[in-house]
Amino acid sequence: MRLVSWFGSFLVVVALLIGVIAAVQLRPASGHSLTASPPSPSPIPAAPAESAPAAAQPSRPALVVNTTQQALINQDRARNGLGALTWSSCLYNVARGQAAYLASPNVAFQHYGGVQQDLGCHLGAQVGENIGWWSGGVNDSQLNTMFMNSAEHRANILGPYRYVATAWAVRSDGRAYIAVEFG
Q1: CB-CB contact of 151 with 161 (8 Å)
Q2: Domain of 132?
Q3: In this model, does residue 141 exceed pLDDT 90?
Q4: What's the structural domain count of the chain?
Q5: Quick one: pLDDT at residue 26?
Q6: Phi-psi sector, 122: left (phi>0), alpha (psi -120 to 50), beta
Q7: Residue 153 lies in a domain
Q8: Which residues make beta-bridge pairs with 87?
């Protein structure tokens, strides 16, 4: 009977030790324990008088609003007997987001769901996207020429769309990225 009692006591001690070890391992390096409590209003502490300078953030790409890309696209369409595309503010929001994302540091140059977002504008069942970049800043005519010399990009420009939007984003090193969304 003593053996069972001693063994039971031993198991209780082991369980307590496991609990203590687990609690110590869950404690963050700051020494504060991890507990949850219901939220309660409390005053916001004042900011310290002097703070260390913030770490340098990579500069955000600058968005370019007034470009001639839509006019060039509509000229290409007119030369091919097609109607002009109408500007879409919904597609512009997609284009702006795509161009800014492409211009972000460490982002591979590829399509990132712009076409799926274009469908969210509810402008029709057919959508398309052209993306491009130019190392010397915004250059609508050069990119339009490159698009028209590429079978896939040309097909979008001359495609069965009614709406278009374009946006450029320029990185601090001068490289400019364009997204052209069709709907």
Answers
A1: no
A2: 62-182
A3: yes
A4: 1
A5: 36
A6: left
A7: yes
A8: 164
